Amino acid sequence: MGMKLMVTLAAFVFSTGLAWSAEEPVKREPSPAQKAQQEKMKTCNAEAKEKELKGDERKKFMSECLKGSTKAS
């Protein structure tokens, strides 16, 4: 009887642990600063695409654009 109880408890603990690990993480709303950065990224990406920039040229443009060194059109 004792062994049966231990096996049952072990199965319960194991199955409960799997259920807890399957839960989705809590998704948080971005902060105002994060939202502003996301918008800046969208604008800079759109401008880089419009200018058909590639490779190192695009990296340099994106860096400057995200720092605010260039004006987005």
Strand pairing plus helix content: what structural class? mainly alpha
What is the number of strand segments?
Answer: 0
Helix percent band: over 70%
Low-confidence stretches: none
Gyration radius, rounded: 26 Å
Instruction: Describe the main β-sheet briefly.
Output: none
| SSE topology string | HHH
How much of the residues is beta strand, in percent? under 5%
Termini separation comes to 77 Å
Question: How many distinct helices?
Answer: 3
* Mean model confidence by pLDDT: 82
Q: What shape does the CA trace take?
A: rod-shaped
Characterization of the model:
With 73 residues, the protein is mainly alpha-helical. It has a domain at 32-73. It has helices spanning 2-21, 32-50, 55-67. 1% of the residues are buried.
What's this entry about, in short?
This protein is mainly alpha-helical and 73 residues long. Helix content is 71%, strand content 0%.
Main attributes of the structure:
0% strand; 3 helices; 71% helix; mainly alpha; 73 residues
Q: What layout of secondary structure does this protein have?
A:
Blueprint: H1 2-21, H2 32-50, H3 55-67
Helix pairs in contact: 2-3
